[in-house]
Amino acid sequence: MEISKPMATPALIADTTVHDFVGKSGGDPWRVFIHVPSGPMPEAGWPVLYMTDGNAVIGTAVDAMRAQAFYPAGTNVGWGVIIAIGYPVEGAYDPLRRSWDLGPPPGRTYPPFHEGTPEVRTGGAGDFLAFIEAELKPWVATRTRIDESRQALYGHSFGGLFALYALFTRPLSFNTFIAASPAIYWEDRVIDRFLERFEAAVPDGLKADVILSAGEYETEKLAPFQVGAEDEEKRLAQKKLILTDEFAKAMAERLDALPGLRASFELHAGENHMSILPVTVNRAVQAAFAVR
């Protein structure tokens, strides 16, 4: 007897749709993933989590919420809307466009990532944040009702730097900011310019949580698989420049001293700069959709 072969069908992310969104100023589209739970909407509307690098995080975020929100008494996680902003590419990232979107101004120009490709530009974070606030948020509001008092922003690496930029330049735009492995060192710590202006004029009524983090192997310590590798010395030298954990911890302490902010730093055991991604995506879900 011939055994029938199972039919292959695409594996979809539950209750999630994809939209290629061109901004009012034109240019290349962003790929926006939006997850709206299928259950009943809360009376105040849904809490919402906005995420950068959408292609890389949307599946993890949705499943982290689905796995926990069915048991809120044991997880402290409820249901919410997830908006992940990425790019129309097959891979997890578009390195060229994210460099522009997530880099604080004024930015710089760098050699191409690969021969025959465009130069790399940074400094577009202001434009990207304006798109989120003026165009994306109103569009999301046409699709479902959002609880504006419960809006969170997550970013990793350059995205973590962007989350800090958003806090310092539009502090009332979100209520929770999750900056995972933020690239605070970037471009001679350009982020400090915006921090200092923010510190000088913290808005009245500000009330926000800020979570910064780093992995155990973003410290002075190499991951076990890096010890004895050919690039060991190069990596150790780079760590002394980037100082992801030290800069993030110091930033959390500085922010926690400001009125209206509750800032903390988390060090995740056994994680490196990339493996920390799903861990911190889950932390973002926990922070954005906490029941208590």
Automatic annotation (TrEMBL):
Signal peptide: none annotated. Coiled coil: none annotated. InterPro entries: AB_hydrolase_fold, Esterase-like, Siderophore_Hydrolase_D. Keywords: Hydrolase. Pfam families: Esterase. GO terms for molecular function: hydrolase activity, acting on ester bonds. PANTHER family: SIDEROPHORE TRIACETYLFUSARININE C ESTERASE, SIDEROPHORE-DEGRADING ESTERASE (EUROFUNG). Belongs to the esterase D family. This is Putative hydrolase of alpha/beta superfamily.
